[in-house]
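Let us practice reading a record.
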Amino acid sequence: MKKRLDDFQDRRAHLANLSDEELKAKFWSLASEIVEPMLELGRKNTSPSIERSVLLRMGFSSLEAKEILNGVLENGLISKGAGHVVYKLAKNKEISVREAGVMLVNGQGWDEVVSLFAKEGVSC
């Protein structure tokens, strides 16, 4: 087996004169560079399975989640997030999230939700 060359001192030369605070700042800066693209992907991309999972965790049954998700897809709201759609309707109507979700399952409130997102200047 080939022995690894010990080049630690060479590789750390650019960090040698930094204080603990400067090293900490450098670490967090590099960590942000690594994590930010992943966070951006999470903000901008979703899928029906992810949104279904969110609805299930909000307490909706799989059948309810399926109906809400179908409505979200039909109304072009997938990028807003299915849970966000239910929450926004609940807040606007001053009802529980459960009640808002059941309304959507029953085909009620979709026009209202679409207009709520449109009022914010968010295209659907």
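A brief commentary: The two ends are 60 Å apart (CA to CA).
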